[in-house]
Amino acid sequence: MNTGLGGRLLREDTEVLAIPVGVSRNKFVLTKIAELRKLPAQIIRDGEFTEWRFDGVLKHEGRLYLHGPYLGGIFLEEAIRKSFTAALPYLSRLIRALGALERRGRILEFIQTDSVYFLEDGGILFLPPALMRELRSMHPEPYKLRVYESINHPDIEDPEKSLSFSVAALLYRTILGRYPFEADREEEIHNLVRHARLLPLSLIEPGLREDLSREILRGLNRGQDPAPSLAQWQEILTRCKQEGLYRDITEIEREQIRRKAQVELRKIDQGYRRKVFWQRHWKTVVIVSAVLVAAGALAGSLLKTVLAPRETRGYTPREVVETYYRSMNDLNHTMMEDCVVEGAGKETIREVVNIYVLSRVSLGYEGRSHITPADAWDAQGRPELTAPQTVYGITDLELQQERGEPEPVFRVRYTKWIPEPAEELQPNSSEATGPGFTSLEINERVFLRLDRKDWVIYRFEPL
Questions:
Q1: Of 390, 395, 391, which Cα lies nearest the Cα of 326?
Q2: 164 burial type by CB count under 10 A (0-12 exposed, 13-18 middle, 19+ buried)
Q3: Most CB within 10 Å of its CB: which of 82, 99, 316, 456?
Q4: Integer Cα distance of 130 and 49 in angstroms
Q5: What is the DSSP string of 145-162?
Q6: What gap in Å lies between CA 369 and CA 372, rounded to an integer?
Q7: What span, in angstroms and rounded, lies between the C-alpha atoms of 148 and 144?
């Protein structure tokens, strides 16, 4: 039997389902587990609920186990090791069962891959969360990271959103063979969950359905839209079962996707390292800042540049220019700031900051942003939007290099989309219907130079 997962054991010639207790000599912990084992587990079978209880404790090969009546099946941990096609029915059963619990007002706080047991008769056994939380504390660190930390968000308190995150992490694991956030320590996994950007699965796995890729990122809190509900997850998996997981692509398209993925991975890695730098060293930075301000040595903005590398470290001049403009679609003003020096582009960056704040406000109050990225809207065929939805960002970006190093110059053309108040669009209307948007054709020249080891933009010249 798997040393971490439960399974079948013989007790006095009778089959039992046994769950390993782990290792602890703390009498208080063992006493607590003796009490928690009295909690019933839930079996959901064809929409009906029944209870399953532990009968007691047994010792097998020097290890303690909780045991109860035997039920044939496999744990979630085993199901997700199968191919996506083989794992899909198990994940569908899990989501249906979680939905049934939710409708009964019994929604789970969390799931572990060793606490969900798929029965051979089609039912699902959910071991008591309070008991599994205690047992988890008694297992080695690598085991805890695998069965719990890799599929649970450390900060989400809403049970439905927490379970949506877990479903997304499980789907990611079955498709790619690894979890979206993996590390050797709990702290590092939490850092990844909170700060790491994720590459869309459709870039990692060329040909994968892009709609599924987007929904998984939404579930992992990597999008402006709210995470899918359990009902929406069921619809998504039904589509995958009916229509397949992949679309047909040419070898040329596959290679283009792989090259794009390599570029994006480099950017993601640099961005994550910088975020973690500030998280871990902010106290040191504050102390150093106070000393430097007192001495009048450096401004805070210069200090930031000295202590943490720019996210654009290692970028070519063309990549810096492209990153600056495309970051407008992501409302990533910090990335834009890393692309410039000496106040270049400060009005545009201030504009992006303002739009970002508006986006966060609507997201906080209404659960979704009213700002649609221009590139995403363009890729969807520029559909009509209803108020208060609007568009911000750029499309049709064109770069032409006019001068090479050591001081590169690029001529840049693009279409800029900006929100426009409804009253400006409908001056004769007595009822405002929310903001619209308008576009501007921009043509400008961009000047770059080296700032220590980084290429930066130091001037924009309108044409």
A1: 395
A2: buried
A3: 456
A4: 19
A5: HHHTGGGS-SS---HHHH
A6: 8
A7: 6
CB of 343 closer than 8 Å to CB of 361: no
377 in the Ramachandran plot: left (φ > 0), alpha (ψ -120 to 50) or beta?
alpha
Integer angstrom CA distances of residue 354 from 1, 224, 305, 348: 58, 16, 23, 10
Angle between helices 27-36 and 129-136 (to 10 degrees): 160
Asked if omega into 20 is within 30° of 0 (cis), the reply is no
Peptide bond into 419 cis (omega under 30): no
- Domains of the chain from N-terminus onward: 1-138 (no CATH), 310-462 (3.10.450)
Full-model pTM: 0.58
List the helix and strand counts (H, then E) for the chain: 17, 14
- pLDDT tens-place string over residues 107-161: 898 999 999 999 999 999 999 998 888 888 888 888 999 999 999 999 998 999 9
Q: Which helix (H) or strand (E) holds 428?
A: none
